Amino acid sequence: MSKKEKDFVKEITPMEEDFSRWYTDVIMKNELVDYSPVKGFMVIRPYGFALWEGIQKYADERFKETGHKNMYFPLLIPESLLNKEKNHVEGFAPEVAWVTHGGSQELAERLFIRPTSETIICHMYKKWLNSYRDLPFLYNQWCNIVRWEKSTRPFLRTAEFLWQEGHTLHETYDEAQEETLMILEIYRSVAEDLLAMPVVVGKKSEKEKFAGAYATYTMEALMHDGQALQAGTSHNLGQHFTKAFDIKFQGRTGQEEYPYHTSWGITTRLIGGLIMVHSDNRGLVLPPKIAPTQVVIIPIAQKKEGVLEKANELYEQLKAAGIRVELDDSSDNSPGWKFNQYEMKGYPIRIEIGPRDIENNQAVAVRRDKLEKETISLQNFAETISSMLDTMQNDLFEKAKAHREAHTYVVTDYEQYKKDVHEKPGFAKMMWCKDEECEIKIKEETGATIRCIPFEQENLGNVCPICGKEAKHMIYVARAY
Ligand code: ZN
251: Cβ–Cβ under 8 A, 6 or more apart, which residues? Predict the structure, then answer.
């Protein structure tokens, strides 16, 4: 490695030294975001936005396949609407940003910038819903929201972020519940199948559920540093909002009824999760399915006869096979500099092709997660690369899963856990009596929270390790972002 190349890598703080610095370095070096003049608000730059577009495309296709349509609601909502659902206003009021003036004129009623859109959507749904024949309402919007957060971190917690929020109305409770869980399954697929990020799916405790929800379901991922990340939530809102907003329809028997309501969202925070699950000290590691560019071809000794022609030929082959590919034939930088550059950017595979390779009808391929050179034949080249991408996608998922398993601990002794929580960060699996008192105690004494009551239950014993009372539910506990 030349000095220039070494310096290049050195600018990323090793994660073992300072995880939080490492995370910021990876993001800033890759120009995924930049800080804006308003504290807590981030600018998403092209490479970062391409990741969001990949998530959007994948999720949007699945929403549409399951009958949802997209709409758009206004950014500003009158104050009177916020006050309609009691729990909701209590939950969100501290984070709401207000608009008080239009030009120089003070507004008769203050407007708030949506922290989520249940209120305005319910207001409109009331106008649109008449009969059971109108149901279900299956709508989603892709938009930005603002929550005035005090401490922020790119992607993970920002005052403004991008998300989608689905809002559906149903005739019966069962249909709403089915919708809530079906969406959670779509989210699981976004996390696991697209981002190769394993998640635990389950229900939130009463204390941790969404403000105004009947029940909240979640997927929780474990980051490199052993902290959990809530990666998406789906809420069965019951009739809380539909009653508060007086949304009624004429039922099958001619009686007026309140519909059942769901809402659900995933956000740009998923990109933070993606980074903290797969990336390393050399920079980003992107699973092939989400990588904006999957393969980069780097010609070696490109001035020699035939090299660029061959590189171009390979480029065309991969492109024709539907692989997202780039050819870097710039002569400003050495191949070694380019290798570092694309390693940092997390391109899943790089192909090196030089005169000797061409002679032997082969190329060198390097997978970003392994960084080992592999000689591959140019016979069936696109097929080979395509299957390498699939294998890498799968390997990254398995690796992340193994990391999660290695950092998941069964806790039966709460006193021991209080010591271990800082030494051995990760998921703690324990039994719980379902008392909020024990939940608060965990949070106060360890800083960890109940991430979820997983669907996949195990019996780890009969007592709650916090209070010693009878326990029937297993929970996941962790410190979280
Ligand atoms: Zn207890």
Answer: 132, 171, 257
- The closest of 279, 209, 230 to 436, measured between CA atoms, is 209
Under DSSP, is residue 313 helix (H, G, I), strand (E, B) or coil? helix
Question: Ligand 1 centroid vs 389 CA: distance in angstroms?
Answer: 47
Instruction: Please measure the distance between the N-terminal and C-terminal CA atoms of the chain and give it in whole angstroms.
Output: 36
* Distance between Cα 470 and ligand 1 center (Å): 8
Tell me how far apart the alpha carbons of residues 336 and 318 are, in angstroms, rounded to a whole number. Answer: 23
Instruction: Note if the pTM is more than 0.70.
Output: yes
Distance from C-alpha of 465 to C-alpha of 133, rounded to nearest angstrom:
50
| DSSP reduced 3-state for 256 | strand
- Alpha-carbon gap, residue 114 to 221, rounded angstroms: 27
Whole-number Å distance, alpha carbon 441 to ligand 1 midpoint, is 9
Consecutive 10-residue averages of pLDDT for the chain (481 residues): 55 94 96 95 97 98 98 96 84 92 97 95 97 98 95 93 98 98 98 98 95 94 97 96 96 97 97 98 97 98 95 98 98 94 97 97 98 97 98 98 98 95 95 96 96 97 96 96 94
**Ligand 1 centroid, distance to 342 Cα (angstroms):** 50
- 165 φ/ψ angles, rounded to the nearest 5 degrees: -130, 120
In sequence order, which ranges of 303-435 are alpha helices (DSSP H)?
A: 307-320, 335-345, 355-359, 381-406, 414-423
